[in-house]
Amino acid sequence: MHIVTAKEMYDTDRYAMEEMGLQGHLLMENAGRAVATAIKDQVSEEDQILILVGKGNNGGDGFVIARTLLQQGYSVEVLQIPNDEEVQGDARTHREIYEAFGYGYRRFDSVDSLATLSSRKTVIIDCLLGIGVKGPLRSPYDEIVPHVNQLDAKVISVDLPSGVPADEGVSFEGAIQADYTVVIQYPKTSAFLQHTAPYYGDWKAVDIGLPDHLLRGRNKGCSVWTKSDVVASLPEREPFSHKGSHGKGLVIGGSIQMPGSVTMTSRAALRAGAGLLTVATVSKVISILASSVTEATFIPLEEQEGRISSVEGIEFGYDGVAIGMGMGRHREGKELLEKVLKLSESPVLIDADGLYALKGYLSEVKSRSYPTIITPHPGEMAHLLDVSIPELLEKPFHYSRQFASRYGVHVVLKGAFTLVTTPDEKQWVHTTGNVGLAKGGSGDVLAGMLLAMVMQPQTVELALNNGVWLHGSTADLLTEQAHSTYDLLATDLIDGLSKTYRTI
Ligand SMILES: NC(=O)C1=CN([C@@H]2O[C@H](COP(=O)(O)OP(=O)(O)OC[C@H]3O[C@@H](n4cnc5c(N)ncnc54)[C@H](O)[C@@H]3O)[C@@H](O)[C@H]2O)[C@@H](O)CC1
Ligand SMILES: Nc1ncnc2c1ncn2[C@@H]1O[C@H](COP(=O)(O)OP(=O)(O)O)[C@@H](O)[C@H]1O
Ligand SMILES: [K+]
Q: Contact, 280 vs 299, CB < 8 A?
């Protein structure tokens, strides 16, 4: 499923209209009817529905939705907010068609009369503003929106909740708080930002027949990674393969202060399918790990105050390396990382404390001949970028693309909507996973799963997306079937992974 900016949506609309002859009023008919069908799943014939119609094409959709629902016997009233003359173009055409069917509408005069009208309604359909919204709500929308938000009625927004911008990095004040949003054709970026997504409520995208291939060709494409993508791309195990063909992985990390993270990464890598796994860490951690990761082999490293001080003794013949988890933040970190990046002839995944070490070495990462992957949470990413966390979260798509292309790295920016970005700026958003993952250790498990994935016969971008999907879906399966979002532990994910594998 493609994700678009407002500009990409308008460009696609324009192409369909101007190059393909799919005229604007036809698109609006398709949109309104598809939305009406989706709305029928959310309402009953007993509902009293009020459709609020704004001045632009989002309002035009409202007239098509109203006609479609009225024809099918639903109780619908329409309140048009602007004056008659202000409604132009395709929206006006559809108001005329609506009237030609013998249906009437009211015109907005005051919030008091809206209050009277809306008090009897059980469903409000929000066709006030779509992707054309600019700046804070102006009169009378700045009064209408707060009124709608305090009603008990179920609020269903069309395309996006009015007032919420389509794009990231756009400030806004006040928006409809929808219970449900029917998105037209493609979800917009704001459906995946932590400060705007909650306005959408649950959502579903409906097809209005736009030409998909226009978006497929984009180099900066952005999509949601879904289960069908995993099913189509996850490599099958060859019957005559051996442990070597399933990837020989190395995990470098752990310290006497933090032995757990490297344990979780290693166990997760093995569960996710790594053929062989070696853990390079300080001796005391090895004695802790030996009983819990019995399948692994170990390389004891030199240490200082319980932390790795040298990677001497490692022979870098691995198919994938993960470094940083539980390693601690110390002066030697940068030197260790630098050696690992130079000597590894394989993908290197850098997580946690490794990311702090990376900051001083960033300028040289691009010259590596093998993929480099970073897996920061927003705090780590903000630190790498030298921006504040709120600034990063305003524009995670932009910052991830900028960072990935500037340094030639794959970025897995973790969060409720984990975002995978390649050095050539392709992006995928993940909607699997839940708040049960917001607990120490979940990231260590993810790092292990990703290490295993990059060693399988698939491209790095497929590996990262499949790994993030497996991690999030395992959390979802576990919180549906056995656990709650309170008690879920990172270690549960490792054992729960078998359940997820069995669903695909
Ligand atoms: N042919 C098309 O382009 C199609 C568009 N569709 C619908 O059309 C929408 C986009 O239509 P428009 O481009 O007309 O945009 P809107 O429907 O968002 O309306 C924009 C208009 O609202 C007013 N406005 C903007 N910001 C405001 C603010 N802060 N306060 C008060 N008023 C404000 C301005 O007068 C502006 O011209 C989409 O979201 C979708 O619902 C669908 O019908 C599918 C086809
Ligand atoms: N609210 C949330 N909803 C969904 N996933 C989440 C949420 N909070 C955290 N996660 C996921 O949990 C993991 C946390 O990683 P991280 O912050 O590195 O934790 P740690 O290293 O302490 O284990 C990431 O995969 C992230 O996407
Ligand atoms: K809307």
A: yes
CB atoms within 10 A of CB 110: 10
Q: What is the DSSP letter of 490?
A: H
Residue 42 has which token pair? 């959310």
CA distance 212 to 220: 15
Q: Which atom of ligand 1 is nearest to the CA of 162?
A: 18
b/e code 32-71 from CB counts within 10 Å (16+ = b): bbbbbebbeebbeeebbbbbbbbbbbbbbbbbbbbbbbbe
Express each pLDDT in 413-467 by its tens digit.
Answer: 999 999 999 999 999 999 999 999 999 999 999 999 999 999 999 999 999 999 9
Query: Is the CB of residue 33 less than 8 Å from the CB of residue 62?
Result: no
User: How far is the C-alpha of 180 from the C-alpha of 161, rounded, in Å?
Assistant: 9
Read off the tokens for 493: 């994910």
Q: 104 CA to middle of ligand 1, Å?
A: 22
Q: How far is the CA of 187 from the centre of ligand 3 (A)?
A: 13
414 is in an annotated binding site: yes
Tokens representing 469 are 């999907």
Does 11 belong to an annotated binding site?
A: no
Cα–Cα distance between 118 and 189 in angstroms, integer? 31
Find out whether the beta carbon of 416 lies less than 6 Å from any atom of ligand 2. Answer: yes
What is the number of other CB atoms lying within 10 angstroms of the CB of residue 157? 31
Instruction: Ligand 1, residue 135: give the atom nearest the CA.
Output: 29
What's this model's pTM, rounded to 2 decimal places?
A: 0.95
Can you list the domains of the chain with their CATH numbers?
22-216 (3.40.50.10260), 227-503 (3.40.1190.20)
Which atom of ligand 1 has the smallest separation from the CA of 158? 41
H-assigned helices in 408-489: 442-454, 460-481
Residue ranges in the chain modelled with pLDDT below 50: none
Query: Which residues have CB less than 5 Å away from ligand 3 (the ion)?
Result: 58, 126, 157-158, 162
State how beta strands 372-374 and 419-421 pair: unpaired
**ipTM of predicted complex:** 0.92
Give dist(CA 294, CA 289) in Å, integer. 8
> Number of helices (H) and strands (E), helices first, in the chain?
20, 19
List the structure tokens of 3: 């994700």
Contact 214, 192 (CB under 8 A): no
Pick the atom of ligand 1 nearest to 64's CA: 43
Distance separating alpha carbons of residues 358 and 361, to the nearest angstrom: 5
Among 29, 51, 57, 81, the mutation site with the greatest number of ligand 1 atoms within 8 A of its Cβ is 57
Kindly report the backbone phi and psi dihedral angles of residue 403, in degrees, each rounded to the nearest multiple of 5, phi listed first.
-70, -45
CA distance 35 to 361: 51
pLDDT 10s digits, 123-141? 999 999 999 999 999 999 9
